[in-house]
Amino acid sequence: MQKKDSKEFKSGFVSILGRTNVGKSTLLNNLIEEKIAITANKPQTTRTAIKAIVNRENSQIIFLDTPGIHKPKTKLGETMVDTAFSSISDVDVLLFLVEATSDDIGKGDQIILDKIKNSNKKTILIINKIDLIEKEKLLKLITLYSKQYEFSAVIPISANDNKYREVVIEEIEKLLNSGPKYYEEDEYTDQTMRQIAEEIIREKALRLLNEEVPHGIYVEVEKYNFRKTAKKEKIYDIDAIIYCKKNSHKGIIIGKEGKMLKRIGTYARQDLEKITGKKVNLKLWVKVQENWEDKGNIVKKFQYKKT
User: Fold this and answer.
1) C-alpha to C-alpha distance for 238 and 265, rounded to whole angstroms
2) pLDDT tens digits, 83-136
3) What is the spatial distance between Cα 182 and Cα 34, in angstroms, rounded to a whole number?
4) How is domain 10-175 classified at the CATH fold level?
5) What's the CATH superfamily of 193-302?
6) What angle do CA 191, 69, 115 make, to 5 degrees?
7) Which of 293, 208, 279 has the alpha carbon at shortest distance from 246?
8) pTM of the prediction?
9) What is the domain partition of the chain in residue ranges?
10) Which of 123, 131, 121, 122 is nearest to 156 (CA)?
């Protein structure tokens, strides 16, 4: 008679909270070992809650990568902050990500900490970028935060280094209750390929364009078709529009002789081919949509959808 595995199956939802540009999306990608959340060395990169799934032998963890906490100036900004805080009530565990380079608990981190206190949720404090500081500074920071809240665990990491992955996952598993599989084993995100394509294109624009332009853009995929060529080669045809707020921005995105738009398209296509495992025929256009960040019909697509 085959011996039954006595270890109970656990599952649950985990929200990653933190200020803008603290490394939440980088951490998420490392935890699930797939590229789901876009990353760029610029604030407010993540605009909506992105679900990503880690399937293990005895657990399923559904992560929510939320927008960074910042002072909103538009309807989009308000929606992003609301998304981050709304996710708190819907999850089982919180990951609170802060920077090791901080000398104190800043205003933004304190706002998040107060929300965590009010929720009384099981929370893991993750201190990122420890490779940039001395051990004494890290210990001081741990003491500062530990006086404010009884964290379930405190884990110092460098989000770019996947050697910390197992430690974080194991600490989360300790805090989860027994539960079902919410998603199939081969699923690692609830994002559609259209959404992933939109985010990949926006990531390349964030990385390549100057400071003023990137956060004034959003991307919309108009066509996402799969076909076989005459030579039976599998290929995806993707048509997407990059919307920006000003005519001057449109010129920057297109670039001299269309070179910047071509670079954005080339890098996006390369990533999409890695993700799909197929050839990608990507076509990009640029259009002006003034004040889109305050238009309800557009901002609506970034609103938080409950788990």
Assistant:
1) 11
2) 656 678 788 999 999 999 988 999 889 989 998 999 999 999 999 999 989 989
3) 19
4) Rossmann fold (3.40.50)
5) K homology (KH) domain (3.30.300.20)
6) 105
7) 293
8) 0.68
9) 10-175, 193-302
10) 131
